[in-house]
Amino acid sequence: MEDMLFYDRMQFAFTITFHYxxxxxxxxxxxxxxxFKWKFLRTKIDKYNDAAKFWMKIFALNFAMGVVTGIPMEFxxxxxxxxxxxxxxxxxxxxxxxxxxxxxxxxxxxLGLFLFGEKLLGHKLHFVTGFLVFLGSWASGYxxxxxxxxxxxxxxxxxxxxxxxxxxxxxxxxxxxxxxxSYLHNQLASIITSSFVxxxxxxxxxxxxxxxxxxxxxxxxxxxxxxxxxxLVAFPTGDWTAKNVAxxxxxxxxxxxxxxxxxxxxxxxxxxxxxxxxxxxxxxxxAVPNVLSFLTYQKWDAxxxxxxxxxxxxYPTNIPGLYYAYHIMVGLGTIFIGIMLLANIQLFRxxxxxxxWMLWGLMFMLPFPYIANTTGWYTAELGRQPWLVxxxxxxTEGASPTVSSGNTLFTLLGxxxxxxxxxxxxxxLAGKIINKGPxxxxx
Amino acid sequence: MELFWYIVLMSMLAIxxxxxxxxxxxxxIHLFFAKKEKDKKAITNAIGPFxxxxxxWLIAAGGVLFFAFPTLYASSFSGFYLPLIIILWxxxxxxxxxxxxxxxxxxxxxxxxxxxxxxxxxLLALFFGVALGxxxxxxxxxxxxxxxxxxxxxxFFLPLWNPTFSPQTEQLGxxxxxxxxxxxxxxxxLTIHGANWIIFKTNxxxxxxxxxxxxxxxxxxxGLIVISLLIWHIIEPKPFHNFLNTPWLWVFPIxxxxxxxxxxxxxxxxxxxxxxxxxxxxxxGGLTSTVASIFPKVLPSTNTINPDLTIYxxxxxxxxxxxxxxxxxIAVVLVAIYFTIQYRVFKGKMDNVGxxxx
Lengths: 443, 358
Description:
The complex is a heterodimer.
Chain A: H1 2-20, H2 23-43, H3 46-79, H4 82-116, H5 118-121, H6 123-152, E1 157-159, E2 165-167, H7 170-174, H8 179-208, H9 212-248, H10 250-257, E3 269-276, E4 281-288, H11 291-297, H12 319-348, H13 356-364, H14 367-384, E5 387-389, E6 393-394, H15 405-436
Antiparallel strand pairs in A: 1-2, 3-4, 5-6
Helix pairs in contact in A: 1-3, 1-15, 2-3, 2-6, 2-8, 3-4, 3-15, 4-6, 6-8, 8-9, 8-13, 8-14, 9-10, 9-12, 12-14
Chain B: H1 2-32, H2 37-47, H3 51-68, H4 70-79, H5 81-100, H6 107-137, E1 144-145, E2 148-149, H7 177-201, H8 206-235, H9 241-245, H10 251-264, H11 273-294, E3 297-299, E4 309-310, H12 311-314, H13 318-345
Antiparallel strand pairs in B: 1-2, 3-4
Helix pairs in contact in B: 1-2, 1-3, 1-6, 1-7, 1-11, 3-4, 5-6, 6-7, 7-8, 7-11, 10-11
Pfam families (chain A): Cyt_bd_oxida_I
Family (chain A): Belongs to the cytochrome ubiquinol oxidase subunit 1 family.
Subcellular location (chain A): Cell membrane
């Protein structure tokens, strides 16, 4: 039983981590493609249309990867987490079924038209199909975050005698206080990913002195989108999300921030330190007094509960993992703001395209938004443990009762092998498209 | 309310089989009958703009199953654990094959992805038939061993096969001679279906050859159906029980028969689209007749200790199901609009180059 739960959790963590590498780019990139196409319609300068078509190829490749790695996510609820599905399907099935009906059909129907239909449709309708693909991908994110929010902060339900959760208020699912901050935070994070990807490709072109016209366009668009999204992701949305955690999941908040003891007269904010769960303290701590209290409650001396105030059985299962995930996300987020501000200063001084160190920097930042988004997702998910539905259903109660650990291990290994292959192929093809570059006035 | 969602779910599954079915069929034909590069291109172009959206019906149907019948979802997905994960891998492999083949022009690369696309299509068609067989045959719910139920009444687990290969034993496997027969029917039926789609969408040299192949395969299909109807009694003692009690259900077998008759008389209609229409009717009728024969059961129990899963004991709560109706109707109207737009833009036959590169 222990083994099985471990493999089930590993499998879900592995498949969702891999899966989320793709939608986080497609959601942000679809917005930027719509921007390029819109720019083309307004200015009639071919460069913008060619740029839209170039990113469309990357988008299509990412989208296909997102779809094929997304189907297993839905299946796994039933195959590996049957008990959880049976008990909560009447509620989270609602948002997941809506995702299928409202967003997947929209995305897949119009992506086909967007990819194959430019000549058949003309530019205006082609723009509309692009916009609908964008709308579909953002609706999909919304419904997934709605599902996620219900698991973090269950609303609109009652529990029957047989343990089943039933819905009694449909609107509550969408007015969940957890939903809007998480959604905005998440969408901005995906715009950050696409900004860094677009500017990294642009920097690559400029440094290699090829496709320089597009290199300039990509770097410029990337850093402008990048500075806006990386500031907004921290404030107000990140701040808002953290306050939600402090309010509704105080034990999670304590673990995230690495607070083992409640302090009178306000809590410090930990910049660096390694949680030592055995001795219940933070090793090698560097912290600034009272700032956390202020950030959370706008009072320098507000009290923040430490882990010592809670039952150990309600502690997040993996305190160091949660703490590091959160701190990596916040640390990277801060770096993103810094880099994007610098790049914009250079852009404003009209020196960006010639500042080599800046271009190298932008290029090498490529993997980091992915790491930040993944650790952000881990913060949310590890923070919810040991619960599947916060405070109501434990993870240990959710797994499939009839599937043995041998089977879950077998399928876990199968997924690892298959996804390694997919990852390699993806990198190869994305590299090929990027290397070939946008085609001038291609028809 | 349960009945409404049951009809919705079955319709979505039938639509899925009809739509993705022709993709699978195209894959099988690609594997066995497309020798020339030009033919291969014609086949993949004929499904190029559609297969992605077709596959969404599976995901959406899965979502509806999860939401409307959570107990059935939990029971069957964990019970059929291995085949479902294998189906997932095959779907992934097939999609990757389709997407990647044209990206690099190299003989070996193309051959690898051609085979990946063809073989996974073939296996998927087989597995979907086998799956239908499992639903009809039923499973040992609660895994009753020597009169004792080892799990909660609605949980079970099936291995891929057991050594006896028999549909009438306590320890069933996913594949036995009965489910395998339905698997073969699935392969033949979807091959015909896919061929008809290609005939409908292309002007390739392949078309005349495919017409001959379909004509012969129709006889094979008819033979297999007759055999399976004869042995159905072994699995389900009263296979026509529902039809005798509820005469209007005969609509479904009649649709099947119209489909089969049409398939044999396609030449009367001079236009290439009719073959596809009739194979769609056949698939729709065949699927709905099969599920109608076990209604209201959705997963029969092969033991007498634990009750069958029916639409009534696996459904979600009334309130959830009834709010769902509102958004579902809005969504279905939107989906109908999307599909109309999509199939109108890419209507008719393709020219030789398909719909352009992307």
